[in-house]
Design a protein that fits this description.
The complex is a heterodimer.
Chain A: E1 3-9, E2 12-18, H1 24-31, E3 50-53, E4 56-59, E5 72-74, H2 87-94, H3 104-117, H4 124-130, H5 142-158
Helix pairs in contact in A: 2-5, 3-5
Chain B: H1 15-19, E1 35-41, E2 47-53, H2 55-58, E3 63-68, H3 69-74, E4 106-107, E5 113-119, H4 122-129, E6 133-138, H5 145-148, E7 164-171, H6 173-181, E8 185-193, E9 205-211, E10 216-221, H7 226-237, E11 245-248, H8 264-276, E12 280-283, H9 286-292, E13 299-307, E14 313-325, E15 352-361, H10 375-393, H11 397-404, E16 413-414, E17 420-421, H12 426-436, H13 442-451, E18 455-464, H14 472-477, E19 486-492, E20 498-502, H15 511-523, E21 530-534, H16 551-578, E22 585-588, E23 591-594, E24 600-602, H17 603-611, E25 626-631, E26 640-650, E27 655-666, H18 673-693, E28 725-728, H19 746-763, H20 777-793
Parallel strand pairs in B: 1-12, 10-11, 14-15, 20-21, 27-28
Antiparallel strand pairs in B: 1-5, 2-4, 2-6, 3-5, 7-15, 8-13, 9-10, 9-12, 13-14, 16-17, 18-26, 19-20, 19-25, 22-23, 23-24, 26-27
Classes of the chains: A alpha+beta, B alpha+beta.
The structure holds FE2/S2 (inorganic) cluster (2 copies).
């Protein structure tokens, strides 16, 4: 049995027929071919799958595609505008906040939401605590923390 | 351009695609007519398979094929191999029991592969697997390596009586015994090096496709060394001619050793892709990674250090039992021997060393190289016993090390355990690290903590590693089944940009940037004109891959050699163009010139001429500008350094907080300090994880993996770790053209001992003598309680 689902993804309407058990992350990766969103675990612990649903960061492996019907979803692919990286992406590059890149899309999406939730006011402690749901095995988090702090400032300066 | 060359913090070229979601990882592939595989795995630690009934699964919706061990045995799919023959004390090769990709009649660990289901969708494959009926007859299991050799322990393999893989030794036992007999003091220690589960964030994955027209197989796989995978699968396991197997390791999301090995899953996918004549993809779910990726460490060790009255080390003896798991993974045998025993001299002049290692089979996942591989285990033994000795002898721990360091003018230095160190400045690194950590101010900070009811400790770890694997003749004489050179191809296009093909593989290390910086410096070509290509056996001539911190020291050196050939050829062409003799041509910053004149031609002009040879010395020089090089190192490289951890423990809760972590490393010259720092940070993160949080635990009775998910296996998270203070000591490697030593593993090697020494230092005043990794808050709290009770009783 398959059911139809429709949502806005990175500003465009996306529809598809899915099995009811299809997860949002599967819909994004397999139906829409947006493979920037990753799957790193099966217990909702790693955060590699984080996207924004109606402006909030969500682990897309914990949500059925059907639950996102009608929602406004954005993924890592939708962040850069006209070839210009989002300030958070730029900060990750500048501060070497990524190595293998597998955790990176989820990290960046989580970080942006974290900055907004704290109204741009973050310190090392809040960043470390706020990224508790995102695992990275490569960086030891040192440069991720630096990147998020710098990204927060750049976001505020650029008003995004 | 110098802003982008060797030694500069250049932001990474690869980041653009990773940051925008445009990486290409194996699971991102979607091939036309692609099917999906699912592996049915053993739920038991040890059992006979009496019967497998796949009938219902075969006819389940969407199923394309179901295979069991009977099918692969009938098709003569070979055993998975271990590529390093270790000879035991008596010169006998290690016991090498078969490791079938699909279990034939016995399963030997939870997660052992029992059947492969191929279906139109992943969900259908999984649903069908549930319909397979396996009649298991459970057998007794042995889990704990310390018990595997016991009389009456469950037996895993008829080929390995008593579960012993080998009983190996290195060093002069008689000299060690003589030194112990005249020692003023002997320090003894018992240690467990905890089992770790690597957990690269990208789970293992593979996709295989067969082209019936050409007989060509293509395997995409999450590998650190695609050429090695091709060699092993073709020469040893599947018998596919090497030239008919293309292996592609695209973007790989971390490896840490666990993706060196050739596993059952990619083997079976490759084999089955021809059987079903359709592409097949498989991606591990995290629970499969936990039970089937090769694990790391898992040693039980007793060590003794003999000293004279001044704390001069006279001799060291070490006795280790190393867990191999249920089967031998690809390089398993080498890890607790040649990557462990040979490192036990550390940074010290200890004249006599003897190490005995017994490797054993148990009903657990195979154990193999994990970041550091053998060297963290050696460092842990040595640096823990050195600080224990310092405490017992009441000598300052930094001073005790200084008294025993190999002097800076003693190189090359032959240790009693086979290695010849090439360079180093151990006292220099220690001095710098002590300053950065404000070691002198520590006792004041300890007193401040005490005033707040907290326990504070500081611990050092002076590590050494043998990297840049490896001089082929040396490892060959020790049992390696392969050479460990690296290859490079540097190819100019007529328009002047460069493609660099390397047999090293990047799964986070940043080769596309570091190697481009190299070429940019060597040839004077702007960084954005250099493209580094890796990971595909169809385009990269050859390779041995990435492990043992070898990429820059060995792979980078091969690139330098290829660049040298480009320059040599370019000189001949330039000589012709400038009407001079090649001997008079100089090359600098991308320009050929006649020495002492202003007559010159840029490299781009020479390259163009090589491809459009209208006015060209065709009788002397071939057209084209495309050079290959192989580099086989003369020796290992020996990165070394000192890491210092300062920790504060709350005795009421047992919670440890790292107050400061300092690292001073000697990696020789640095090409991209930003990338090197990142490698150090990541290694330290894993090392702290081992010391405080991570532990792969099996239930000793049932053999079930108790830490089989992120709910139970404690991965370090951002708020578990501090920021790190990283510095360098630079002693260039004397035997490779770049003077580099390798930086990928240092953190994981050094950090566990530094953290555990800090914990022991903090807990010594309350009477805690020994605590094993991971020093979780509950273990620390219990140790404090036990010590309190003991003190009260005394
Ligand atoms: S894949 Fe969603 S949290 Fe791990
Ligand atoms: S960069 Fe590799 S997991 Fe974070």
């Amino acid at each position: 049995m398959s059911v139809s689902v429709s949502m806005k993804v990175n500003g465009k309407t996306a529809t598809g027929n899915v099995e009811p058990r299809t997860l949002l992350v599967q819909f994004i990766r397999e139906h829409l071919g947006l493979t920037g969103t990753h799957v790193g675990c099966d217990t909702s612990q790693c955060g590699a799958c984080v996207v924004h649903v109606d402006g909030k960061s969500i682990k897309s492996c914990t949500m059925l595609a059907l639950r996102a019907d009608g929602a406004d979803v954005s993924t890592i692919e939708g962040l850069a505008k006209d070839g210009t990286l989002h300030p958070m992406q730029e900060a990750f590059r500048e501060h070497h906040g990524l190595q293998c890149g597998f955790c990176t899309p989820g990290m960046v999406m989580s970080a942006i939401d974290l900055v907004k939730r704290h109204n741009y006011k973050l310190d090392e402690k809040t960043v470390r605590h706020g990224l508790e749901g995102n695992l990275c095995r490569c960086t030891g988090y040192h440069n991720i923390v630096k990147a998020v702090l710098a990204g927060a400032e750049a976001m505020q300066a650029k008003g995004v | 351009m110098s802003e982008q060359g060797i030694g500069k913090r250049v932001v990474r070229k690869e980041d653009q695609r990773f940051l925008t979601g445009k990486g290409h990882y194996t699971d991102d592939l979607q091939r036309i007519r692609q099917t999906h595989a699912y592996f049915l795995r053993s739920p038991h630690a040890h059992a006979k398979i009496a019967r497998i009934d796949t009938k219902a699964a075969q006819s389940a919706p969407g199923v394309v094929a179901v295979f069991t061990g009977a099918d692969t045995a009938a098709a003569k799919v070979g055993s998975l191999i271990c590529g390093w023959v270790v000879k035991d004390k008596h010169g006998e090769p290690h016991k090498a029991p078969p490791h079938p990709a699909l279990a034939v009649d016995t399963v030997r660990h939870v997660g052992d592969t029992v059947a492969m289901v191929i279906a139109e969708t992943e969900a259908q494959a999984k649903d069908a697997a549930e319909k397979i009926v396996v009649d298991y007859q459970e057998l007794p299991a042995v889990i704990n390596p310390a018990k595997a050799l016991d009389k009456g322990a469950a037996q895993l393999h008829a080929e390995a009586p008593g579960n012993l893989c080998y009983d190996w030794e290195l060093g002069d036992r008689a000299a060690v015994d003589a030194a112990f007999a005249k020692a003023a003091h002997v320090t003894k220690i018992d240690l467990v090096n905890n089992r770790l589960i690597p957990n690269a964030m990208e789970p293992r994955a593979a996709a295989a496709e067969y082209d019936a027209g050409s007989g060509q197989y293509t395997l995409w796989t999450t590998s650190q060394n695609p050429h090695v995978t091709r060699l092993v699968l073709s020469a040893f396991v599947l018998g596919i001619p090497e030239h008919k197997l293309r292996v592609i390791a695209p973007d790989v999301g971390g490896g840490f050793g666990s993706k060196i090995f050739i596993y059952a899953e990619e083997t079976l996918l490759t084999w089955a892709s021809a059987k079903v004549n359709r592409p097949i993809k498989w991606t591990a779910e995290r629970n499969e990674s936990f039970v089937s990726d090769a694990h790391g460490r898992d040693h039980v060790t007793h060590a003794e250090l003999a000293m004279d009255k001044d704390g001069k080390f006279l001799a060291l003896k070490v006795d280790t039992i190393a867990n191999m798991g249920a089967y031998l993974s690809t390089f398993a045998t080498a890890v607790p021997t040649y990557l462990y025993g040979t490192l036990l001299a550390g940074q010290y002049t200890t004249p006599a060393i003897h190490v005995n290692v017994r490797s054993v089979f148990t009903n657990t996942a195979p154990v193999d190289a994990y970041r550091g591989a053998g060297r963290p285990e050696a460092t842990f033994v040595l640096e823990r016993i050195v600080e224990q000795a310092a405490r017992e002898m009441k000598i300052d721990k930094a001073e005790l090390r200084r008294r025993n360091f190999i002097a800076t003018d003693a190189y090359p230095y032959q240790t009693p355990v086979a290695l010849a160190y090439d360079s180093g400045n151990y006292a220099g690194a220690l001095k710098k690290a002590l300053e950065m950590a404000d070691y002198d101010g520590f006792e004041k900070r300890r007193a401040d903590s005490k005033a707040k009811g907290k326990l504070r400790g500081i611990g050092l770890s002076a590590y050494i590693e043998a990297c840049g694997l490896a001089p082929s003749a040396v490892v060959g004489s020790l049992g390696a089944g392969v050479g460990q050179w690296e290859s490079a191809q540097v190819r100019f296009n007529p328009t002047g940009n460069v493609q660099v093909y390397t047999g090293s593989h990047s799964h986070g290390q940043g080769h596309e940037t570091t190697f481009a910086q190299l070429v940019s410096t060597q040839l004077g070509v702007p960084l954005d004109q250099v493209e580094v290509i890796h990971g595909d056996t169809a385009s990269v001539p050859f390779g041995m891959g990435t492990y043992g911190s070898r990429s820059l020291a060995v792979g980078g050196s091969a690139i330098v050699k290829a660049c040298d050939k480009i320059i040599a050829k370019g000189k001949k062409i330039a000589a012709h163009m400038l009407e001079a003799s090649a001997a008079d041509i100089e090359f600098k910053n991308g320009v050929f010139s006649i020495a002492g004149t202003d007559k010159q031609v840029p490299l781009g002009g020479v390259v163009f001429s090589a491809y459009v040879p209208h006015n060209y010395p065709l009788n002397e020089v071939e057209p084209g500008m495309d050079e290959n090089a192989f580099y086989d190192p003369a020796n290992f490289t020996y990165p070394a350094g000192v890491h210092i951890c300062e920790i504060e423990i709350d005795p009421d809760t047992g919670v440890s907080t790292i107050a400061k972590f300092t690292a001073v490393d000697d990696f020789g010259n640095l090409v991209n300090p930003m990338i090197v720092e990142g490698q150090v940070h990541g290694g330290i993160g894993q090392g702290i994880g081992q010391a405080l949080l991570e532990h792969g635990v099996y239930d000793e009775k049932s053999g079930q993996l108790l830490t089989g998910s992120y709910m139970d296996y404690t991965m370090p998270r951002a708020d578990d770790l501090p920021s790190f203070d990283v510095g360098y000591q630079v002693t260039p490697c004397p035997h490779n053209p770049l003077g580099v030593k390798g930086c990928g593993e240092a953190g994981a090697i050094a950090a566990p001992a530094a953290v555990m020494n800090a914990i022991h230092d903090a807990l010594a005043p309350v009477g805690v003598k020994s605590i094993d990794m991971p020093a979780t808050s509950s273990r620390v709290w219990q140790a404090i309680q036990r010590a309190n009770t003991k003190m009260a009783a005394e």
